[in-house]
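Quick one: structure tokens for this chain, please?
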Amino acid sequence: MSPSDSYPPFRLGESRFDQSSFYGRLRHFLDVIDPRTLFVSEQRLNESVNLLEHFKNGTLPSNVTNSQLWKAQKVKQAPLMILMNLQAIIHPDTGAKIFMPFRMSGYIPFGTPVVVGLLLPNQTLASTVFWQCLNQSHNACVNYSNRNASQPTTGSQFILGYTGAVTSAVSIAVGLSIFVQKAQSFRPATRLLVQRFIPFPAVACANVCNVVLMRHTELEEGVSVMDEEGRVVGISRIAARHALVETALTRVVLPMPILVLPPIVMALLERLPLLQRNRRLVLPVHALVCLSAFSLALPVAISLFPQQSQIRTSEVEPEIAAATDCKILTYNKGL
């Protein structure tokens, strides 16, 4: 292999960034959510898969660089040894191609229009229900598409989780909207500002419900835990609980910048003479502010915890602890 590039030595199934630090995970996930991977052709994907297969089999041509290998793995993102990466196109457990709007690289471009809709001022009850349903439907499909799929999920389990997630989101948002509308003590300007912040508690609570309901089979069935060599030593429900708690925390952090910063920024920008004279610019500016907040929030939120989480062997089920001499076990947290 040609060493003529500045990339670090290629490691199959691992990240080229240090995952032990928040900064390393942030750089890794900024790479993973790169929206350019949405436009990768079938031919380019097949070429990347073949290149990684040649590396695995020791048949790699001598002129292939580390840069080419890292870029190929970025396209595929299907770890073969230890699940270190959040998948971009192919799910590492199922091997199935993830539908474009539900990939992490598609989360921002496909989610931003929904965020803009959630934050529109003067929402009616019907529009609140519509945007909350659309948001939680997108979240449910992303959660399902990027779950830990080491254990199967039936169609009925998906439908049950999806129905519960959407119902909880709509109930919380509608309840808060009705409360604000009936709060006579609020001045009109204050009421408008509060209405703009309603989506955050509604979405944060619903996101947690969404994660738990869409991935509740992990709690029932458990997730695979591996030793330091990457060998599966058992299926642990305790590790599944750890995984869901960490994922739920990211879902609370994720909407903070997205649903809190834009109302504050827009309240300031709408005082500018330019927007007061040209009201048609308000929606495009609003969309740009939401896109900027979304682009900041997503990589920060998913970088809070390592994708490949660890748990002490003494904390898992006794039968699993008895099956290995390792002090620390690892498991794929999922999205």
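The chain is about 60% helix and 5% strand.
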